[in-house]
Protein: Cytochrome b/b6 N-terminal region profile domain-containing protein
Organism: Cucumis sativus
Amino acid sequence: MTSKYVPPHVNIFYCLGGITITCFLVQVATGFAMTFYYRLTVTKAFASVQYIMTEVNFGWLIRSVHRWSASMMVLMMILHVFPVYLTGGFNKRRELTWVIDVVLAVLTASFGVTGYSLPQDQIGYWAIKIVTSVPEAIPVIKSPLVELLCGSTSVRQSTLTIIYDYSREEEYLVGANMDY
């Protein structure tokens, strides 16, 4: 293996896309494992997360790996996109790749918002409130836009259900874009 030639321009930054994909796959696997125990109700979401952490065999490990791989995925995506931008990797013949990278970066950031919101703890509640306050600042269409995105203007069961659905749909969108 050490006798293989490695071109001099290849460095650690060439691995960041693959590391991001690995973090995504870990997210899917651990998220799927936690789905069996998570309760999608405003009153039971926090208790179900506590149950996963304390009662489920290796639940603490699964949730911790899920949480840390999410943070790692965001970091790796940022570290992947910036060098491509700085080196002009979006020039001719690679525009579509750059657009897909930017879409994946936005979806990766939205993973963080939906992931923080699902446990329905204080961090999750305020994450929802902060994210919904952005469209509320748009004149005229603020209330209908917030209701479209979150199901209501306050944090309710419909809000939690929509955020859970967003997190599931994001997995498919990211998976489809990574396939390219």
User: Anything to note?
Assistant: The chain has a mean pLDDT of 85. The chain has two domains: 10-120, 121-179. The helical segments are 16-35, 45-54, 59-86, 95-117, 122-136, 142-150, 157-179.
